Amino acid sequence: MKLTYILFAVLLLCSCNKKTESASEEIIPKDTVIAPTTKTQESIEGIYKTYSDSNNSEECGISLEINKTKDGYSYFLKTKTRQLKGKANFTKSESGEKYLVLEGIKWDEYEGDISHEEDSLSESEPKELEIPVGIDASYVKDTLTIQNYGNAMNSYTKLSECGSKYIQLIKKGKSNK
């Protein structure tokens, strides 16, 4: 008799577990596909363009195409006056900021730190400054931002075709807000 009660109790417990399993199956329809939970990796690849800004009367008209290669990334930069190709490096700083560096593009103007220019006038020979090569852009949510020129303390211009201090290149397909 004790054996019958034990067997009945085991069957009862087993049937309860089966019902909860089948109940959870009924919640999710059979034609529903459950995607695996993997970390999505954002892609920097794509076509980026400047868009007209109502606050800025000057049109920059710059487009940048970023492609993945076996060695990293490549770029194709098109402005009103030139078309440039080269290697692009995508990096992340220790603080988490993301940057894209377009290698091989020589800045249009560079005077360096001019805050001490009066002190350097007393020197007999002026220093010949080397113009930097490579344009960096910060990357945030499908937007690349290039600081195009400096200030009174550090005078430079990276892309003279555009008079904007900050050039924003927005990934094609995203709305301009």
Can you give a write-up of this model?
The protein has 177 residues and is of the alpha+beta class. 17% of the residues lie in helices and 37% in strands. It has helices at residues 2-27, 117-120; strands spanning 46-49, 63-69, 72-78, 83-92, 98-106, 109-113, 133-140, 143-147, 154-157, 166-171. The chain is elongated, with a radius of gyration of 30 Å. A hairpin with a 4-residue loop joins strand 3 and strand 4 (83-92). The longest helix is centred in the first third of the chain and has 26 residues, at 2-27. An eight-stranded antiparallel β-barrel has the order 1-2-3-4-5-7-8-10. A two-stranded antiparallel ribbon has the order 6-9. It is built from two helices and ten strands; from the N terminus they run αββββββαββββ. The relative contact order is 0.16.
Give a short synopsis of this structure.
The chain has 177 residues and is an alpha+beta fold. It contains two helices and ten strands; from the N terminus they run αββββββαββββ. Strand 2 and strand 3 (72-78) form a beta hairpin.
